[in-house]
Amino acid sequence: MSEARAGGRNRLLTRVAWAALLLVLCLIGNDRAEEPETPAPGRHSTAAKSHPHAHGLPPAHDPLPGAGPQTLEVKVLGLKAPIEGHGLDKLGGVELPPYERADAVAWYKDGPSPGSEGPAVIVGHVDTEKAPAVFAGLSVLKRGAKIHVTRTDGIVAEFTVEDIAVVPNDPFDADKLYGPLDTDRAELRLVTCGGDYDRKKHLYSANVVVSSYLTGAAQAPQPQQQPPQPQKPQEQQPQQPPPQQQQPQQQPPQQPQAPTQKPSPAAPAPAVPGTGETGETDENEADPEDERAEQ
C-alpha cells in the first residue's frame, strides 16, 4: 500500500473515530445532561503551519515545560474552577467530574499539559438538571479574553482567546476541535456542549470550542503573610484603695441603773450596857463634858 493511500486511510479512521466518540459528549437522559464524554485528542492529519499572530493579539510565548494544572480562571466570566486530571472512561471519552462536582473541570491528562507545546484540552459541564454548570457562560467569551491556568510548578500560564466556534456534531470536524491551530505553540481548548438541544435524541447538536494560545507566564503570587500585630499594652486598672476597716461603733456609756431591790432598813444601834437603852443619843440630853466646860 502506498504512503498516500495509507495516510488517507488513517485520516478517515481518525475522523470516524472522533465522530463516533463525540456523539456521547453531550448525551442527555431523563431530561438532564448526562456526563459529557469528550473523545481523547489524538494525532490529526492536518499539519498546522506557523504563521504570525493575528492582528490585535499579543505574540505567542515560548512553550513551558510540562506540569499539571491546578486551577482554571476566566475573570471576565467570574469563573474559577479546580482542575481534575482524568483519563478515558469505558466509552472512550474523557471522564468528567460527576455532577456533584459540576463546578470542576477535567483536563485530559494523557495529552499535553496547559502551557506545554501542543493543544491541551479541558472539558466541563454546561448545565445540570437543576442549574447552570461551570462552562455555562463559555459561549459568550470574546476574542482577546484572557484565560489563566495555575500549574503545579507554581507558574500561572496566561492564554489569549483567538477563536470561539460552535462545531456541529454532524458533520464532525476533529481537526477543528482538537487539531493545533499553529505549530510550535502551547494551545488550550475549552470544550462544552452547545447548539440546540434535541429532547427526542437527548443530545445537543454541537460543541462550543474556545481556542486560545499561551501569551504569558509568571510565578503565582505567594500568599501575603500578615505582619505580626503589635500587642497593645495592657491598660492598667486604677488601683482601688484598700477597703477601710470599719471602726466599731462606740456605744454610749450606760447610766448606772438603780438597784431593783429596795435597801433594807438600818439596823437599830446596839444597846449601851447597863442602861437598857439604845446607843442613840438624845439631842436634849447634855454632854457631861460640855457641862464641865461651862463651869
Describe this structure in words.
The chain has 295 residues and is mostly beta strands. The chain has a domain at 7-44 and 58-219: Sortase, Chain: A. Helix content is 11%, strand content 29%. The chain contains 3 helices and 14 strands. It has helices spanning 3-22, 174-178, 288-294; strands spanning 28-29, 32-33, 38-39, 69-74, 79-86, 93-94, 105-108, 118-123, 146-151, 155-168, 186-198, 203-219, 271-272, 277-278. The strands form 4 sheets. The chain has an 8-stranded mixed beta barrel. A two-stranded antiparallel ribbon has the order 1-2. A hairpin with a 3-residue loop joins strand 9 (146-151) and strand 10. The radius of gyration is 56 Å and the shape is elongated. The termini are far apart. Residues 1-24, 27-38 and 43-51 have low confidence and may be disordered.
Can you give me a brief rundown of this structure?
This protein is mostly beta strands. It has three helices and 14 strands.
Could you name the key traits of this structure?
single chain, mainly beta, 295 residues, 14 strands, two-stranded antiparallel sheet, Sortase, Chain: A
